[in-house]
Amino acid sequence: MLFAVLSFLTSFGFSSLTATAAEPLSNGAVRFTYFAPMADEVVLQGSGALRKQKMVKQPDGTWVYMSTVLPPDMYTYNFKIDDGLMQTEQGNNDVVRDIDQYLNYFFVPGWPADYYMEQPVPHGRVEQPWYPSTLNGMTQRRMSVYLPAEYDANPAKQYPVLYLLHGSGGDETAWLAMGRLKQIMDLMIADGKCKPMIVVMPNGNADLDAAPGESPYMQAVAKANNVSSMTGRIEAAFPVEVMTYVEQNYRTIGDKQHRAIAGLSLGGLHTLYISANNPQLFDYVGLFSPQTTNALNDKKITGIKSLTKGIKTLAGQVPVVGNKWESKLGRKFEKYDDIVVYDSLDQKLATQFAIAPKLYYIAVGKEDYVMKLVTMHRQRLDAGGYQYIYNETDGGHTWDVWRRHLLDFLPRLF
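RE: above sequence
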């Protein structure tokens, strides 16, 4: 029977794991062991400083990897066995889903990880309502809504609202699970580092009405590439369906000055074009590692070689063919009228910045493969003389980067 053991320093504050033998290491490193006597290779696949690490087999069939001292952060990991099987750690209930992978996680306390952990502060709550929708012939879709701890105790108070959008392959649970939104909001509000606000996390996957396993109607699994979410339908439906439901059912302050929208990667694409097409709605705009073009009807994208596999697929396998997109595999993508949301961006930005947003924020990691897209968008903004804040940090296209971007973005709101 395969099982895994994570050994750790108790001084790091890791919670004890059932069926686990803790072996404190005096040098502050973390020791991973995985028992697989019949395996030819076991690879630890971790986030951040862990990265991919080949484990060393011991005579008793246990595979071992000893880390360096890890900087404070949230770390996710699983194990890849030589047959390609991905395994989480048995006996460890700290499991999170990222697109189609299940991962164990732990924290090394300190900044910024303290904001990702449960803390002894007043806790907000999360609701996950279904709202009416006609997108893709659906009747309803699901969103997640964070309400600050004081919300129920102040029934007459209205709140500003942040619409926070996920990336390709994500859903309405992504910012809660991998993004640690609830924990971040609870502590930042308690510390006075951001204002109490409502945070709305809609499902931006056009093909699914909710996260996999959460819908009584659809059984599809998560996919990393959401081509159908790049045809303008999400952007067109957003103010009509998502915002209408939120403003009718929650105590929001319903004006531009008290609305913010932000998103990562594909959610950055949605954020860019929702805000550009609706300049009267948002005074705060945040683009985290944004995909700044839908890649389907933008010929400039085909020359960029540093993009993800998903965007490369769009650029190389879904070229524009007349009024339709057709992949090399023969799949055809119907022409949607909503594709017009991507047209005439220069003119739309001119209108948006005629009465400029109070904050137009762009953040990206130095090693991020969308850097060229970000640079192109910044050049467009610079050419128009539009003011924005640019935050370039270490890291790539990963959740550890986006969580830090959110920590920097939230105190700037409202």
